[in-house]
């Protein structure tokens, strides 16, 4: 759903809605069908409106942090924006961890919080917290709404910012009087985002330079991050691998974007990754980073990381390029669009000869396979359960997602694969993608999960 839908005829009278009704109507107009949260005093007017909605399902969580993480998992699994709701004060501050996580992992998230009456803001009123100020460093944008007239534009802007460019969280803090008072509901609203112009199309000369480096390299590696998953560029990535024959390493956030069953996939890089993936990066002469940010868990000491490699860095966020490792060819743009152009530019340059490189990589795979020693005391090794020997592949038990990701093979390159199973992660995503319940702790209730604070119960 777009915020630029055809506006109503000018002679049509705009409906009068309360501010909370405008929040609900705006979410419905944007195509939101599921929200996660907990009611409280400052957000209660919105929950009164939500009770009458047949278009939006509310999932009640046991804790606001669980609501935020559930909305995150929903967004990652479905490709849609996640929405979480909390009241003012402690309710809002409980969302901070989830908001920060969404910011670090580039997850589209809208956090809607209630706030005290605008007339008592700044007086240390009951459960008053400056959540806009608190979340400014960990959101793409934070919006304070004090009147019902501002609601449609605030929600529309939050949606636009959260889902465009590099995805991320946006907080909308709505005072209680703005929720209770009424105003005409005008949709689509007039939005004003000065300076917000995400770059999606790359510079042509940079594409050509990257293609020439890739075609002449003797030890290239495609270092694939979560940006490829967010851009839904898995098909373009697969075509680039077919065209060049280059090996692929995928970060934790990109797991599933390229199937583990492909010979070109070396695994996950970094301290939790495989030896072939780590040494491939270290010994390469060219790293093509696509939607990755050279995280310290991948690079280790930056000065010693891939000392002989030239860097092609593709990212939609210009702030990421050159932040950790200087790029020889910086490319700002959407990963899907950039890969399409890179494919066109590379097609006529010929396939590089990587026979010697693959001999080295295959040798590393043979020398350092992923394995473990079977216990001799009759107990079950965790590697055995996560590899599917103790259960079907869809019901694996996993503990640390980083640890498990190296052992739970990803067989699909769809945007909904690559998510780590287990009670916490699965409880987040089960509302977005119906599937058999994973192997995790459950309460006797059909819809109430007891995995930490992610217990969910469908309600309105």
Automatic annotation (TrEMBL):
Residue segments, region Disordered: 375-460
Biased composition annotated in UniProt, kind: Polar residues: 445-460
One Pfam match: TPP_enzyme_M
Domain of life: Bacteria
SUPFAM superfamilies, per database record: DHS-like NAD/FAD-binding domain, Thiamin diphosphate-binding fold (THDP-binding)
All residue ranges annotated as the Thiamine pyrophosphate enzyme central domain in the record: 209-342
Thiamine pyrophosphate enzyme N-terminal TPP-binding domain location: 18-133
Low complexity bias locations: 405-425
Family: Belongs to the TPP enzyme family.
Record's protein name: Acetolactate synthase
Organism per entry: Pseudolysinimonas kribbensis
